[in-house]
Structures are given as structure tokens and as C-alpha cells.
Amino acid sequence: MPGNKVSKQKPCHHCKSRPASAPPDTSTIHYEKFWLYRHCSSVQQRDRQAQKAGQLFSGLLAMNVVFLGSAFISSMIFNHVAITLADVWILLSILKVLCLCWIIYYLLGTSRQPHAVLYRDSHAGPIWIRGSVLLFASFSILLNVFQIGYSAILIQCKSRVEIVFPSIEIFFILTQAFFLWHHSKDCIQVQHNFTRCGLMLTIATNLLLWLLAVTNDTIHVEIESQLREVEQRFEGKAPFSHPYLCNETASCTCPNTTICKVFQKGYILLYPFNTEYCLVCCSVLYVMWKNVGRRISDHHVPHIKPRFRLQGVVFGPLLGTIAVIIGICVFMMYQIQATSSVPSRQAFVIYYSYYIVLLPLMSVGAVIGTIIHALEKKELDTLKNPTRSLDVILLMGAALGQIGMSYFSIVAIVATDPRDLLNSLILSHSVLLIFQNITQNVFIIDGLHRQPFMPPDKEEEMKEGQNHEAYDQRGVNMLELGQEIRKVSLSYIHSYSHLSWKRRALREISFFLVLCNIILWVMPTFGAHPVFENGLEKSFYGYSTWFAIVNFGLPLGVFYRMHSVGGLLEVYITA
């Protein structure tokens, strides 16, 4: 009968689909045949392609803007007649106005759209980064106020552009600092391409401002060194001759008034803060650029946010405070003696001796911390984190400044007279500085990739919740659940008792390195530049060549110390 045939064929069909060897066949279902799967897959693929295309286009925009601005600044340096400083200021003013228009549009338009900011990156824009933005922004504003006052006093030999440019700069700094403070964690979900282009344009503008600030800072140091060498004419020494600098100092000199001297000294002193401000802003803006269109799932959000506490640390803050106090005394002594008309040799000996004592201690601490990280066997944090990736790149890149200058100093000393007392100190300082940079980078990068440490009670709560959920699904009774939790708790408490000393050691080392990096940041930032003032490398490589090397390495070295403080604080908190 037809009905019986159908009934016999159906069981036979299902029986063939349920043998013991059937699961491999049933698990390989061809979902791609369904329209919904193909549609969702194509949407995801188009979304990734659009994201890559937007990043590529915005990156090309920033690259072209940076090349154009660099060509202007380089032309100003090498041919100051055809391209003047006023021309560079006009170009940068146009870029800043464009950036201001985009930032205001983002604040008033993009960020207020529905579903614009659904996610916020908890790792981006930590409090010390945003605090450093506000700190350096304040100093940069004060710098521009001094520049306006200095140019107003010398208005007879200064261009009016030198008053307009700092005024635009003040408004740009205020707006950008407000923008970064409130929106550095945003993962914007609307107007992706326009936001990426605006962020990249702002990054390019900050890079050009940094390049110009470094150039102008170099010019001021050259003028100070030139004036010092001119004073040595009375001692029978041949002074250095630089026509451009001589014309600058002769045509526009500060009158003998207190207010002009204050503006002039403040103008020169605050320049390093302006360079730091530009670099910090670039790093924060880059993280925002990477987070455009990013969707953060729940497992990316930390269940417990570590906090900064000073409990359990004694030796690190104590030794670090001693290093800071001694460093301040050495710095003041160096500034008094080395900035006189005839720099004292003793000032350089004391300065380099302080570094020779401090750098090995920092290196030993970093090596011990790295060994402790290896002994911990803690799981690595492998989740996608643009902030951490940028921190690693900045640490490695900024360290090239000090490492590069150190190698140039080593070559100059070995080729001249390494047996001299001062030369041997400079040689030791250069070698130790290279080793300290490498060991500290390894320690910080290794610590940034470690999972944050959680107290035992929090860890037990998380494990209990996870086990409870898993056991409920399997239908296991509460007695077995309690026994399993007890085993996990005893095992964790036993491991914690063995790891507690390692955690304390990591916190002590991290805090000590934080204070040491702070004092090593303060000394060159506020004017201690023995790499140029000792005269050894300058006489070996020549005035212009060595100044180009210092021009590249010194700002990066200052930025490295400041960025290391942020990385070490992260390591301290996660420990």
C-alpha cells in the first residue's frame, strides 16, 4: 500500500541518519546555503572592509599633512629667507582652525546623536594621562601668554603674526584639552569616516606643532650657547660664528627691564612642556582613532577595576623619595654652576655621578621585577587593547632618543680620550643609560600584558558564580558544588600565600621606578642639558650635526620618562 510504503521509508530514512557514526555528518550543516547567513556574513565583511578603507584614507590624509608641514618647517630652517617663521605659523593656524571646527562639531553634533557612544574603552584615557594633558595644557597656555607679552614689548621688531598665532594656539589648547578630558574613552558608532579624518587631522597638526616647538627650543638653546661663547671672547677664546643667530640677537634684543626678562626666561623655560603636551595629545587621539566603530563585548570589560593604593609598600617610596631629594639638590647645583659664563667641570662630574649611581639601581630593580613576572606564571591578557599596543610602541620608540644619543656619545668618547675623568663618567653614563632603558622597557611591557591581580574574596566570588552556573546546567546537587568550591578556595589560598611576597616586591619596585623616572624627567625638562653643554660631542661631531642629534633625542628622552611613569603606575596597580 502507498501509505505503508511511506511509513516504511520514513523510519528507514531516520534510522540511516542516527547511527553511531552519524554525529560528524549532522554537525557539518551547510549554513552558507541559507540567505540569512550569507547576508550577515557579507555585512560583517563589508563592515571590516569599510573600517580598513576609512583607516587607510584618514592615515593618508594625515601623512600628506605632516609631509607638507615638515617641508615648510625644514625650508624655514635651511632657507629662512624664502620661507619665514610667519609662513609656517600661517599654515599651522589654518590647520588649527580646521581642527577646531571639527572638534566643535564633534562636541555639539556627532557625540550627541542617538546611539553615537554605546561603548567606552575603560583602558583608554586613564586619569594620569588626562591629568598630564591638563597639566601640560596649562603650562602651554602660560607659554603662549609669555610669548604674547614678549612680542608686544618688542613689537617694533616683531611681526604681528607673532601675537595672533599664540592667541589662536591658546583657544586650540583649551578646546582640545576639554575634548580629550571628556571624550578620550569614546568608541564612536556614527560618522566613522568623518570622525577618523578629523582625528587624524588633529594628530597631524599636533605633530607639526611638536616639530615646530622642538625647532624653536633648539634655536633658543643655540642663542644661549652663542651668547655664552661671545662672552668668552674676553678670555681670548675663538667664539662660534652663526650669521642667522647673530642677526636674530642683534636686531631684536630684550630691553633691560624686569618684565621683559621674565617673559623671555619664562618663554624659554616652558617650551619643553609644550612639546610634551603635543606628544601626549597625539597618543590619546590615536587611541580614539583606533576605537572608532569598535564594539566592546562584556568580556572586555573588567569585573573589578583596580585602584591605586599605598598599602603594603615601604621601601620603594622611601628609596624613591631619597633619590628625588638628592636629584633636586644635584639639579640646583648644576643649574647654578653650569649656567654661569664659565661652566664648572665639577658640576658635570656631580651630575654624571648621580646618574651613574641611580641608573644601576633602576636596572637591578627592573631585572628583579622581570624575574618575578616569570616566576608568577600568571595568565597573559591577550584581549584586543589599542591603548596597551600604543603604550608598547611609544615606549620602544621614545627609548630610541636616549639610546641613540648614548651611542653617539660612546663613539665620540672612545675616539678621543676615554681615560679622562669627565669622559669616563660620560662613557659610563651612556652605557648604563642604554641598559636601563632596555631593562625597564622589558619590565613594563611584561607587566602590562599580565592579568590584574584580584583579592582572594573577589576571586572566590567569581569562581563560585562561574561554578554555580556550570553546575546548575549539569544538574549537580549543592553538596557537590560546596565541595568543589572548598577545594578551589583552599588551592587558591595556598597559592596566594606563596605569591604574596612577589606581589609586594613588584609594588615596591614599581613605585621606586616611578619616583626615579619622575626626577629623571624633571632634570632635563627644566633645563639640564649636559649632553650639549659639556662640549665634548659638540667638538667631535660639529655644532650643527650634534645639535641635530640632540634635537631628535632629547625631546624623545623627556617623553620616554613621562610615559614610563604611566606604564609603571599600571604595573603597580595590577600588582
Largest sheet: 2 strands, antiparallel
Element-by-element helix/strand order? HHHHEHHEHHHHHHHHHHHHH
Count of discrete alpha- or pi-helical segments spanning 4 or more residues: 19
Measure the end-to-end span.
Answer: 78 Å
Helix content: over 70%
SS class: mainly alpha
Q: Using only CA atoms, what is the Rg?
A: 30 Å
Strand order of the largest sheet: 1-2
Family: Belongs to the otopetrin family.
Pfam family, one: Otopetrin
Keywords: Cell membrane, Hydrogen ion transport, Ion channel, Ion transport, Membrane, Transmembrane, Transmembrane helix, Transport
Region (Disordered): 1-25
Can you characterise this structure?
The chain crosses the membrane at residues 56-82, 88-108, 128-151, 163-181, 193-213, 268-289, 310-336, 348-372, 392-415, 421-444, 509-528, 540-560. The chain has 575 residues and is mainly alpha-helical. Helices cover 77% and strands 1% of the residues. The chain has a domain at 308-453 and 500-574. It has helices at 2-16, 23-27, 35-78, 85-108, 127-153, 161-183, 192-231, 243-251, 258-269, 271-290, 315-338, 345-376, 386-415, 421-448, 456-474, 478-525, 530-533, 536-541, 543-574; strands at residues 117-120, 186-188. Mean pLDDT is 76; it is low at 1-37, 238-250, 456-476 and 495-499.
